[in-house]
Specification:
This protein has 123 residues and is mainly α. The chain is built from six helices and no strands. Helix 2 (11-36) packs antiparallel against helix 4 (47-72), helix 4 runs antiparallel to helix 5 (76-91) and helix 4 packs parallel to helix 6.
């Protein structure tokens, strides 16, 4: 499968959904690890891990959701995905507590919804 066919077949959106799920698992696992093992959980909650993850989500969102606008012309999936990215970015400004986790999980879910809508519009 080449890059162009991956874009048309919705593979990038499926990858975005998978990475959103991975982020969800990371957030939940980090919360559990913090509760159980403070030193190991601290490494996973490092701000740099979240900044890199957000950067990857933004890059993937630009490619996948931008492709959707060009191919099918619908702005709604990109708008929803952008809202999710914004919620995720805003969560980075919060202290590491349950509010940050809740906002991050909400942003991830909203972003995954945008990718799913984009994938469905392409097919």
């Amino acid at each position: 499968m080449n890059f162009a066919s991956a874009l048309k077949g919705g593979a990038i959106d499926r990858l975005g959904i998978a990475l959103s799920g991975l982020c969800l698992v990371h957030c939940l696992a980090s919360a559990v690890l913090v509760a159980v093992l403070a030193s190991a959980g601290g490494m996973l909650l490092d701000h740099r891990v979240h900044a890199v993850g957000l950067g990857l989500a933004i890059a993937l969102g630009l490619v996948a959701l931008g492709r959707g606008i060009v191919e099918h012309g619908f702005m709604m999936p990109s708008a929803i995905g952008g809202l999710g990215l914004g919620v995720m970015a805003g969560a980075l400004s919060l202290p590491h507590d349950s509010n940050e986790i809740l906002y991050t999980l909400a942003g991830v879910a909203i972003l995954a919804l945008g990718h799913d809508l984009n994938r469905r519009a392409v097919i």
